[in-house]
Amino acid sequence: MIYTLISFIIYILALPFLAVLSLRSKFHQSIPARFFLFGNPRPKITKFHIHACSLGEVVAISPLIKALQDTRISVITQTGFKKAVELSKNVRFLPFECFLPFWLSKCETLIVFETDLWINLFKIAKKNGAKTILLNARISDKSYKSYFRFKFYYKFVFANIDLVLAQSETDKQRLINLGAKNVKVVGNIKSANLPSPNKTYQKPTKKVITIASSHQNEEKQILSKITLNDDETLFIAPRHPERFNEVDEIATKFATKFNLSYEKMSQNKGLKSRVILVDCLGELVNIYAISDIVVLCGSFEKNIGGHNPIEAAQFGCGIISGEHYFNQKPLFSAVSGIQIAKYDDLTNLIHLNLSSKITNKCDFDEVLRQIKD
User: Fold this and answer.
1) Across the chain, which distance is largest between two alpha carbons, in Å?
2) Contact 123, 160 (CB under 8 A)
3) What is the β-pairing status of strands 339-340 and 318-321?
4) Which of 48, 122, 183, 299 could hold 160 in an S-S bridge, CB 3.0 to 4.6 Å?
């Protein structure tokens, strides 16, 4: 009760900021839904409730949603919502904490993916009789100190979690230190059921190099260090769709500088240019399937933490990552052949014949058994 009151006070104080922020296209749907319940009614009663924060998490749990059936999904971001409605008719934005006591309807099992640890989400579900599970739980090297500093908060969170399925033994010990009980190591579910291509593109006759899941400054820095050989094609896939126009300008300058043909994937020109901007959502796995080298971004700048290498490794692509992949260490340890590099190293690395291989997959059947027991 006290916690809900405090969250309500914080909500009132934040209202002017939320109103302004909701005007941005990135939040124009999520903020009204989460903080004003606009178009966001109580979800229907189902057997399973799965909560995943954003697009990447929703993609990762899609096999679980199909396996469990009778499932509703809650999300935080607009891109996550857009993907979730492809998987279920019962999708909602998760409201802010003070709304959950009267908004959250009953389910038999609540499954929260990774580290979206909200007290009321677990507490209200538990009060309604649900079994509560934290799935794919991890605590990165960088965030552990911050988590431990607020151990008093996480103690209350874990008091309402029945089962924690951790990615690694290191994560298990860190979670126990934060107050978690009944922690079991099952590996990273992202390595158990990988997204399959939903389209088949003809592989270019030239070697395909893909700059994947890139963030601000990464495209500019990478393109300043590399040149393409005559037998190479370059795909550029930014992580966030709101940056497509920005990266379009960067890629256009690169192509113009070296007199290379250029196209945007959304133009449907057949992917025959030497430089191609992947400005469409849900295409990255399709591009991985025809790639020879993947420069896996989110790892060359310091404060992002890297991205999932397994999605590319399933196709045997050579993978080059930056040094800052601290959020993905369990997944990186499950893939052999990844090259760790700095920007300057890319000049030569992208032209080599590299490959990767998944060495340790999570047992998806065991995850299902733990959830259903």
Assistant:
1) 66
2) yes
3) parallel
4) 122
Asked if 317 and 287 touch (Cβ cutoff 8 Å), the reply is no
How many residues are there in the chain? 373
Side chain identity at residue 29, one-letter code? Q
* Whether pTM exceeds 0.90: no
As a whole number of angstroms, the distance between CA 83 and CA 198 comes to 14
Residue 357 CB neighbours (<10 A): 12
* Nearest CA-CA partner of 351 in 320, 328, 326, 327: 320
How many C-beta neighbours within 10 Å does residue 21 have?
Answer: 15
- Using one digit for the tens of pLDDT, what is the confidence trace for 156-183? 999 999 999 998 888 999 999 999 999 9
Note whether 353 and 372 are within 8 A (CB): no
Measured between alpha carbons, how far apart are the two ends of the chain, in Å? 31
How far apart CA 158 and CA 123 sit, in angstroms, is 10
Report the alpha-carbon distance of residue 189 to residue 50 in Å, rounded. 14
pLDDT band with cut points at 50, 70 and 90 for residue 115: confident
- pLDDT tens for residues 4-18? 898 999 989 999 999
Cα(123)–Cα(235) distance, integer angstroms:
45
